[in-house]
């Protein structure tokens, strides 16, 4: 007898009831949550922003090293990050699952524990979803809904020449965390007796497994009286996101290599893997930091900020999107992004 419960023992409605049990609603705009044919929201005069992201087992996550609880957390965090990137406040999410036959009730409860903790941290209400079986692995699709005062949403397409280019936190960590986890997985597969060696890699592994949406920065910019002129979250890498802002805003940019923020673990580990650290910082994905532009006049408010780096400036489109090295050489930045295809 397994100590785990087969999903078929509980059934779809039993599972939904279990999910519903642990939900408490926080936001005034949530009128009806889980349990009816649709949720009912009452946003008042605000603008509503909506974003969806899907995570597919074997494509976006590997359960060998990603605990389900972390996966649940990450599925919510990456969606909240998209709402943050609009300068909006997340208020509700829906979660849709396609579940493979080998998943137990306990496994799905772990996943929802992560979802619940993320909902609590980001103050969002889980108001619905859908549950179905899958012939293959696990698929999680989260839709996030957020609110922003009319006219306050920040787009990718509104950066202007002479704006400052800013980035939150540090970059390259999540990508190198994945390299570390993949290496340890291989070591384990070759010799299951071996314990994973993650010493001095905690930061990187945490960046990969438990990314945070930068809602703190959204609130702080509001308090500082700064409205970014454009913004995007960094899911595919700085280079790729910068290209999105520049092409959609019809501008160019100059980014200074020595201003790029990186944790010491990123620099050491890149070295260890014989990777170019600048490449990791520019093209490593999944850091979920914010890339945004501000007016030059906001420089003084941001110049000493411990968690925001001013990495460059917006230029005319004709100057292209360039990286300026410490010696003053310039290179065109290309978006490598990561493609899952
Ligand atoms: P319907 O057949 O009308 O689609 P469901 O039985 O799928 O209804 O869903 C019943 C209620 O449970 C709805 O409010 C739905 O949003 C919610 N729900 C279903 N699956 C999930 C899930 N995985 N997570 C959260 N809520 C869910
Ligand atoms: Mg349904």
At the fourth level of CATH, the homologous superfamily of the largest domain is: PurM-like C-terminal domain
- How far is it from the N-terminal to the C-terminal residue, by CA? 41 Å
Extended strand count: 13
Q: Which sequence of SSEs, written as H and E, runs from N to C? A: HEEEHEHEEEHHHEHEHHEHEEE
Give an account of the 3D structure.
- The chain has helices at 7-21, 68-84, 105-122, 173-190, 202-209, 215-224, 238-249, 264-272, 277-283, 299-302, and strands spanning 30-32, 40-41, 47-56, 89-100, 125-134, 139-148, 164-168, 230-233, 252-256, 290-294, 308-315, 321-324, 330-332.
- It is α+β, with helices and mostly antiparallel strands and 341 residues long.
- It folds into 2 domains: 10-148, 60s Ribosomal Protein L30, Chain: A (2-Layer Sandwich), CATH 3.30.1330.10; 164-332, Phosphoribosyl-aminoimidazole Synthetase, Chain A, domain 2, CATH 3.90.650.10.
- The protein has a 7-stranded mixed β-sheet, sandwiched between helices.
- The chain binds adenosine-5'-diphosphate and magnesium ion (MG).
- Residues 16, 19, 34-37, 95, 97, 126, 128-131 line the site of adenosine-5'-diphosphate (ADP).
Summarize the structure.
35% of the residues lie in helices and 24% in strands. The chain is an alpha+beta fold and 341 residues long.
């Amino acid at each position: 007898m397994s100590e785990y419960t087969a999903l078929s023992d509980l059934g779809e409605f039993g599972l939904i009831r279990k999910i519903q049990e642990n939900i408490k609603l926080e936001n005034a705009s949530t009128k009806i949550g889980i349990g009816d044919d649709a949720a009912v929201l009452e946003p008042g005069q605000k603008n509503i922003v909506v974003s969806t992201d899907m995570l597919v087992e074997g494509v976006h996550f590997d359960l060998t090293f990603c605990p389900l609880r972390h996966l649940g957390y990450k599925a919510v965090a990456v969606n909240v990050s998209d709402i943050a990137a609009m300068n909006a406040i997340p208020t509700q999410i829906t979660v849709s699952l396609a579940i493979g036959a080998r998943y137990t009730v306990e496994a799905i409860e772990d996943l929802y524990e992560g979802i619940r903790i993320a909902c609590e941290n980001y103050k969002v209400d889980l108001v619905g979803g859908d549950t179905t079986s899958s012939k293959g692995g696990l698929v999680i699709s989260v839709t996030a809904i957020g609110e922003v005062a009319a006219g306050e949403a920040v787009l990718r397409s509104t950066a202007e020449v002479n704006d400052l280019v800013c980035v939150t936190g540090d970059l390259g960590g999540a990508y190198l965390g994945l390299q570390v986890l993949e290496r340890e997985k291989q070591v384990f597969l070759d010799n299951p007796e071996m314990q994973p060696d993650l010493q001095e890699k905690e930061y990187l592994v945490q960046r990969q497994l438990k990314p945070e949406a930068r809602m703190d920065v959204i609130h702080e910019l509001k308090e500082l009286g700064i409205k970014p002129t454009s913004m995007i979250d960094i899911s595919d890498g700085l280079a790729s996101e910068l290209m999105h802002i520049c092409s959609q805003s019809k501008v160019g940019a100059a980014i200074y290599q020595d201003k790029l923020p990186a944790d010491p673990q990123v620099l050491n580990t890149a070295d260890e893997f014989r990777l170019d650290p600048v490449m990791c910082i520019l093209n490593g994905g999944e850091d979920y930091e914010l890339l945004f532009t501000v007016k030059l006049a906001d420089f003084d408010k941001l110049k000493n900020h411990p968690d925001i780096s001013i990495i460059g400036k917006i230029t005319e489109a004709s100057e292209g999107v360039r990286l300026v090295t410490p010696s003053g050489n310039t290179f065109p930045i290309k978006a490598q992004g990561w493609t899952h295809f």
